[in-house]
């Protein structure tokens, strides 16, 4: 599909370039013909005047003083030949360059389309798993001629669990598409970043306790201009991952500091780490590191970091990750803080 589009685009490029080139050549040809004709006419006039002058003194036979009419035709033919070669040259060069240029123009569109197709197929795959599990479980219960109440209860409980998973997945998908499209439900406001992080830590504490993971924080008080839901989502995803991908008795360190005009959030764990090969794809939607290697019961959808990346981008920030297998992972998020003037007006309000 993209090959034919590339050829079509090249043809359009060529059509435009050749129209300009041939029009220019036509003007050149007409100009050269006119100039040559005028030069020959002048020459003829000069010769005739000279002959008339000479005849005044003594009659002169019409000697071999003549203008070569063939010269005009020759000039025209030569000009035509040169212009033809130039146009042929332009056609070949523009064709080649146009083809390369068309490829470069279409590449981002092609990449986006491939990404979109992969996204749809991954999403369908994630949806299929709970639906299949639910269907199988229900079929087994139905086939049972006299299912006990307990059996029916278990079947219903399983169905509810799978529905919850589906619900969570669909919510995450919606979040992802909303952040990606910049479809915001609120305007950015001045927020106390420290208290948002502290609140998320409080929410995540029970999860950390289950694995006896210590959440250590060192948080500077700082205001940022952003959307609260986005900051919550960002911090929550990073801390959730640090807990999920750490072994029992681990330590997760959360730090917030000011650095010039930015606020820097680091979430560091001493968990299972990520290999260099996986680091490259970690922000891709649905990307999950091989489960057998992680040996964790974590069953996420691989959307958390893709959402984090979208949030960071929409806030004109950056995210960096450093990791070593079996040593741990550190995520560093840099976000612009509020401008000085906003800080002043905020402190006045307080
Ligand atoms: P979700 O966040 O959608 O519930 P998830 O946690 O699997 O699912 P991401 O948060 O996008 O998805 O993370 C992608 C993958 O990166 C994870 O599956 C995990 O393998 C790896 N990963 C992320 N954070 C860490 C971490 N702190 N330590 C080790 N591996 C990590
Ligand atoms: Mg996650």
In the CATH hierarchy, the third-tier topology of the largest domain is known as Heat Shock Protein 90
Q: Give the mean pLDDT.
A: 88
Low-confidence stretches: 339-350
CATH superfamily of the largest domain: Histidine kinase-like ATPase, C-terminal domain
Q: What's the total helix number?
A: 9
CA-based gyration radius: 38 Å
Structural account:
- This protein has 350 residues and is of the alpha+beta class.
- The protein has 3 domains: 2-114; 120-181, Helix Hairpins; 189-342, Histidine kinase-like ATPase, C-terminal domain (Heat Shock Protein 90).
- Helices cover 65% and strands 13% of the residues.
- The chain contains 9 helices and 7 strands.
- The protein has a 5-stranded mixed beta sheet, covered by helices on one side. A two-stranded antiparallel ribbon has the order 1-3.
- Strand 4 (251-259) and strand 5 form a beta hairpin.
- It is elongated, with a radius of gyration of 38 Å.
- It starts with a helix and ends with a helix.
- Magnesium ion binds at residues 237, 240-241, 300, 304.
């Amino acid at each position: 599909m993209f090959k034919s589009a590339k050829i079509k685009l090249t043809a359009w490029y060529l059509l435009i370039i050749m129209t300009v080139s041939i029009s220019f050549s036509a003007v050149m040809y007409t100009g050269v013909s006119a100039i040559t004709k005028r030069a020959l006419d002048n020459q003829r006039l000069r010769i005739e005047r000279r002959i008339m002058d000479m005849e005044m003194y003594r009659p002169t036979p019409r000697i071999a003083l003549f203008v070569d009419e063939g010269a005009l035709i020759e000039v025209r033919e030569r000009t035509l030949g040169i212009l033809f070669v130039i146009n042929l040259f332009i056609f070949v060069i523009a064709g080649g360059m146009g083809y390369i240029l068309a490829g470069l123009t279409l590449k981002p569109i092609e990449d986006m389309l491939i990404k979109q197709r992969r996204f749809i197929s991954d999403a369908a795959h994630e949806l299929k798993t709970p639906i299949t599990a639910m269907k199988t479980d229900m079929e087994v219960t139905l086939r049972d001629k006299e299912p006990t109440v307990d059996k029916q209860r278990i079947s219903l409980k399983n169905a509810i669990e799978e529905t919850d998973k589906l619900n969570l997945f669909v919510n995450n998908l919606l979040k992802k598409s909303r952040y990606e499209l910049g479809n915001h439900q609120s305007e950015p406001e001045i927020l106390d970043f420290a208290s948002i992080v502290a609140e998320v830590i409080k929410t995540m504490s029970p999860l950390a306790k289950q694995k006896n993971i210590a959440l250590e924080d060192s948080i500077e008080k700082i205001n940022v201009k952003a959307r609260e839901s986005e900051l919550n989502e960002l911090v929550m995803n990073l801390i959730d991952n640090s807990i999920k991908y750490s072994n029992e008795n681990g330590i997760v360190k959360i730090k917030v500091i000011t650095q010039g005009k930015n606020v820097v959030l680091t979430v560091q764990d001493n968990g299972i780490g990520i290999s260099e090969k996986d680091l490259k794809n970690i922000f891709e939607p649905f990307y999950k590191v091989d489960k057998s290697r992680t040996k964790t019961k974590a069953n996420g959808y691989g959307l958390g970091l893709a959402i984090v990346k979208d949030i960071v981008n929409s806030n004109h920030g950056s995210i960096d990750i450093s990791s070593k297998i079996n040593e741990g992972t550190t995520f560093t998020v840099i976000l612009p803080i509020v401008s000085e003037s906003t800080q002043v007006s905020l402190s006045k309000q307080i």
